[in-house]
Every structure is written in structure tokens, then in C-alpha cells.
Amino acid sequence: MSDDAPYLPRAAAPVQARPAPSWAKKKPPKSKATNHPKATARKYLAPRDPHQHAQKIAENVIEAWYQSFGGSSIDVPLGTVAALALLRNVPGLADWILNLQPHELPQFFKEIYLGHWINRPDLIDRAIRLHDWAWNPEPDPQQLRAVHAVTNRAINTGLLDLTGNDDVYMRSESDVLSPLLTGLRHKSDKKWRGEYHTPPCVSDLMARMLVDKDYGGPTKSIREPAVGSGGMLRSVAQCLRDLQLNPHDYTWYGNDVDSLAAACAAVNAIIWDLGPNCFIGCADSLAPEDDYAKTLAEAQDAFKQRDNAVDTATTIAATRDAIRLLDQISTPKENTPV
Q1: How far apart are CA 274 and CA 281, in angstroms?
Q2: Residue 329 CB-density burial (10 A; 0-12 exposed, 13-18 middle, 19+ buried)
Q3: With contact defined as beta carbons under 8 Å apart, do 62 and 76 qualify?
Q4: CA 102, CA 146: separation in Å to the nearest integer?
Q5: Chain-centroid distance, C-alpha 41
Q6: Quick one: how far is CA 247 from the chain centroid?
Q7: What is the pLDDT at residue 292?
Q8: Beta strand 251-255 with 221-224: parallel, antiparallel or unpaired?
């Protein structure tokens, strides 16, 4: 932890309201469970402990992925769960998702990531490995069936109950991507990478030892040189909230040499609402030249690209409106017969 907090200039967020995504315009379907008046489509009884619940979700997703012959691209099931975890659990949404067909899921996931890209382009760009597969114009049908199985299993195991709570404290009680990432990776791959995520009970204990009620102020920063999926950041943020301190008042830095782990940390930073000054990089923290300057520069570039894209889209929309208005004015009205 250190006291320096460089200011990253960024353009103001666009004020024009975004159109609602396609899924929000449709009425949720009725539940298919009709055996009992009080029956619901999902009957899974989640563990009371949020960490156990996250582990159960990971186990079920991994089982669904491999049973459906999804393949070796573990970024696909990770990106599927990450996209769903970015949603808020509004009534009817879970049933609506369960009724989507496999070919409809990539567009759905793209809309989720694009919606968050407007506010945090730097974090969504960092998470590119989790969603670039969804942009494939010719997706593999077998892979889509596996994605569909993962989606249904995650929803039915209560993912939205764990990550979709409006209360940020409640949805920050666990990290669902950490057990999923480590469970999907082959044992030899983890050994070669030296990737062993800190158990949440240990990171929670470390956070309570490091953070107290006097730890505050806008110049404070929290740094994690081997961030993984962000478990230590989550523990510190929860500890700050327990002490009535706001994580938005701090600057957060996280680096990891593994681009897939850094992608998970970027998504988790949004889920856990670590604030506007949270920067996740993919870099070797042991390198002497690494001082987060590259991470900050990449974040700055992401905001510039966002602003340019929004300006272009606004110009196109305004031009279309002007042409439409001109056509209405210049089109002669037909004479009304007497």
C-alpha cells in the first residue's frame, strides 16, 4: 500500500441515454414449472456460505462445459459466467435467459459487455479474452450448445442470487470467477504458471490486519502485484465497507502476468464496484520497469477510443435525423380530392 495516486484525466461520460438492450424490451416468459402453484423454474437450494455457493457454481459450470464437449478454450465458459455475473437480478430475467436458444446467446453477451464498456472501457478492454469469442461471425454450433448448457447450469445453481444483488456489499461477498478459473485449468498448467489463488478466508484475515478505521483519505492507494482474479481487492473493499469507508475514495492497482486472470479481475472490479480509480493491468510485477505507467496509459487510450466512438455515433444519429426531417419537409403533399 502506498500514498501516491496519479490522476488519470478522462472525458466526461456521454449524457445521451443508451437504448435498452433487446432482451429488456421483451416480456419475460412464464415459468415452465406447473406441477405446483408455488413451484418455480429453479429449485436449487444455495449454500448459506457465499464462498461455498461460488464453489458449487464453479463445479456445476465445469461439469456442464465438459459434458457438452465444449472444448479446451476455457475463456468461453469463463466469459459466459462473467457476462451473467455483470447483470442485476431483476424479476423475470432468469426465466427469460433460460428460454434463450444457443444461437441467441452471443448477441446477448455482447450487449452486456457493450453496456458496461460505455462506463468502463478500460476494464472491458482488459477483459477482451472473456468476450472476444462472442464476436465470431461463424460460431461453432457445438461450442454454442456447450455455452447454452453452461448458461442454464449457472442460472439454475443461483448465480444471479450471488452476483446480481443491488446491494454492492452482498454481491461482493464472494468471487465466483476464481474457483471457476482454477477449476478449468489443467493441473500441470497451474503448476507451470505458479498460479494458486489465495483462499478467501486468508485474504479476509489479511485485510482485517492491514486496514483499520484510520486508513482513509483520497491519496491512499491499494496495490496488488499478483492480483489473480482480484480476491485480495475484494477482501480489502469489504473491510473498508465494514468500517464505513467508501472504496471509491481510494485508487486501486492490480497486475497479473496471466491475461485471463487479469480479465477476471477486471470484470470483478465492476461487479464489486471498486470505483472509478481502479486499474487492472496485465504485466510482470517483478520487471524493474513496471510501475503501472503502462496500465494507466492503456486505460487512458481506452477512454479516448470510447469518446471517439460515442462522438461518431452521435454524429451519425444527428445526420440521420436531419436527413429524415429534410425528407419530410421537401416531400410534396398530395392534393386532397374535393
Answers
A1: 15
A2: exposed
A3: no
A4: 9
A5: 25
A6: 18
A7: 83
A8: parallel
The C-alpha atoms of residue 288 and residue 291 are separated, in whole angstroms, by 8
**CB of 255 closer than 8 Å to CB of 226:** yes
Q: What pLDDT does 294 receive?
A: 87
Distance between CA atoms of 3 and 213, rounded to whole angstroms? 16
Helices (H) and strands (E) counted in the chain, each on its own, are 15, 3
224 three-class SS: strand
Structure-block grid coordinates of residue 56? 458449487
Cβ atoms of 40 and 31 closer than 8 Å:
yes
What is the spatial distance between Cα 264 and Cα 261, in angstroms, rounded to a whole number? Answer: 5
Burial status of residue 288 (CB atoms within 10 A of its CB: 0-12, 13-18, 19 or more): exposed
Asked if 61 and 81 touch (Cβ cutoff 8 Å), the reply is yes
| Radius of gyration over every alpha carbon of the chain, rounded to an integer in angstroms | 22
d(CA 45, CA 250): 37
Over the stretch 256-305, which tens digit does the pLDDT of each residue have? 999 999 999 999 999 999 999 999 999 887 776 666 888 999 999 999 99
Cell of 307: 469518446
pLDDT at 144: 97
Q: The pTM is what?
A: 0.81
Dihedral sign for Cα 67, 71, 76, 78, please.
positive
Which pLDDT score is estimated for 6? 45
SS3 string, 233-289, reads: HHHHHHHHHHCCCCHHHCEEEEECCCHHHHHHHHHHHHHCCCCCCEEEECCCCCCCC
Tell me phi and psi for residue 251, to 5 degrees. -105, 130
pLDDT in tens, 219-244: 788 999 999 999 999 999 999 999 99
Q: Supply the pLDDT for residue 142.
A: 96
- The CA angle 146-148-153, to the nearest 5 degrees, is 95
Q: Output the nine-digit C-alpha cell for 169.
A: 456489499
Q: Is 266 exposed, middle or buried (0-12, 13-18, 19+ CB in 10 A)?
A: buried
Provide the 3-class DSSP secondary structure of residue 222: strand
